[in-house]
Amino acid sequence: MKVDILLGLQWGDEGKGKVVDVLTPRYDVVARFQGGPNAGHTLEFEGQKYVLRSIPSGIFQGDKVNIIGNGVVLDPALFKAEAEALEASGHNLKERLHISKKAHLILPTHRILDAAYEAAKGDAKVGTTGKGIGPTYTDKVSRNGVRVGDILHDFDKKYAAAKARHEQILKGLNYEYDLTELEKAWLEGIDYLKQFKFVDSEHEINGLLSDGKSVLCEGAQGTMLDVDFGSYPFVTSSNTICAGACTGLGIAPNKIGEVYGIFKAYCTRVGAGPFPTELFDKTGDQICTLGHEFGSVTGRKRRCGWIDLVALKYAIMVDGVTKLIMMKSDVLDTFETIKACVAYKVNGEEIDYFPFDIEGVEPVYVELPGWQTDMTKMQSEDEFPEEFNAYLSFLEEQLGVPVKIVSVGPDRGQTIERYTEE
Ligand code: GDP
Ligand code: IMO
Ligand code: MG
């Protein structure tokens, strides 16, 4: 068997959690491969809303095994809060949630370093989620990290050494902080973690594939936030692209099956950094209001704009997307016309490829008629309005990949599969 991968093609928050939940019944296992509690994946069903941060979005469907892979960075305190809330609402995790021994731990001092580095950057700050993501991945790459598996071996010594090193850096930055509460909750989290099954996830996943089991990998963030290919330096610190699933789970490239690329019918971004199609007018406010575009975890207002096909094409290329999923089409239900960016203008010259730097590029738009129809109760593609089908055909023609799923609302049920021939 091969693994399928679902990942965001924009700047995150595309609706990954919702679709992973919808697709989970078709798989035996769901696995996260990168990122950490900077993610906020929202699921809605049976009138309930859940926001997951470190736990994979396959956790609500039956008894499916969910794996937190080696590429993930885990904060034990936040994990404990998330897992306890799920257990309290009747979801048993202990047997079904496996955690890679090789996943790196976010230390309390990583969170403080995240804040200190942001403060030091002043106006150039990234606008991180403040969860210690950058400093944790930095320690991983510089070979100073502490891993989940270390909890069982010489943990106190390893933690003390890392903490002392961080304190030294913070002293150099003249950054004032109080570790007491953070550290207390974190150490409780470490104890709590011990109840879970620590695994060698690369062995587990490859073993499952050999046994004919199917695996869905759940991306976090989005391709435009990838540390190599995103809008650097306004990115996260992991490889969010398809290849991240190989390194973040120990899956060989030839084991990859379908790659689901997910995008909003428009575009959003949280935090700082260039965003060519950003709208600063009434239309932008309208998208924000209708789409409830506020961060799932931080509550931060998301910046809103039109769909950017130059960036999407680039994302499809680096991810090797085989199937597209369009989310939040209902948010555009009332618009008379809809714009799509098909090229950038750079120094007066039009380009249709994603350049080294997108700062200051001007979007070139095509304007299409809106469908002006409430799509939120639709159940099948046969009900799609003509203008909506035209919008889909335009996107497919531009992007060269079929749109196989359309989402028309936040609920699990508001998901329409398209059976059009490829
Ligand atoms: P993720 O990080 O990619 O999982 O996405 P988030 O959960 O951060 O943000 C997506 C938001 O849009 C959540 O509040 C979802 O409940 C909501 N959502 C998902 N799909 C749709 C949709 O088709 N229509 C509408 N209106 N909301 C949606
Ligand atoms: P999901 O998985 C949207 C953004 C932050 C910031 C940058 C770096 O829910 O789509 P970090 O804390 O990772 O160092 O922040 O990345 N960011 C996200 N934006 N959705 C996310 O996750 C994000 N995770 C990080 O806002 O600009
Ligand atoms: Mg999110």
TrEMBL record:
Q: In which pathway does it act?
A: Purine metabolism; AMP biosynthesis via de novo pathway; AMP from IMP: step 1/2
What is its cofactor? Mg(2+)
| Molecular function GO terms recorded | adenylosuccinate synthase activity; GTP binding; magnesium ion binding
| Residues noted as binding GTP in the record, renumbered to the chain | 12-18, 40-42, 302, 328-330, 407-409
Q: Which InterPro entries match?
A: Adenylosuccin_syn_GTP-bd, Adenylosuccin_syn_Lys_AS, Adenylosuccinate_synth_dom1, Adenylosuccinate_synth_dom2, Adenylosuccinate_synth_dom3, Adenylosuccinate_synthetase, P-loop_NTPase
| Principal subcellular localisation of the protein | cytoplasm
As for subcellular location, the record says: Cytoplasm
Positions with a binding annotation for Mg(2+): D13, G40
A Pfam family it matches? Adenylsucc_synt
Ribonucleoprotein keyword on record = no
Keywords in alphabetical order, please.
Cytoplasm, GTP-binding, Ligase, Magnesium, Metal-binding, Nucleotide-binding, Purine biosynthesis
Q: State where substrate binds.
A: S296, V297, T298, G299, R300, K301, R302
Catalysed reaction, written as an equation? IMP + L-aspartate + GTP = N(6)-(1,2-dicarboxyethyl)-AMP + GDP + phosphate + 2 H(+)
Single biological process term from Gene Ontology = IMP metabolic process
Briefly, what is this protein's role?
Plays an important role in the de novo pathway of purine nucleotide biosynthesis. Catalyzes the first committed step in the biosynthesis of AMP from IMP.
Quaternary assembly: Homodimer.
Output the HAMAP family linked to this UniProt entry.
Answer: Adenylosucc_synth (MF_00011)
- The protein's name is Adenylosuccinate synthetase
Species of the source:
Bacteroides clarus
- Which gene is this protein's source? purA
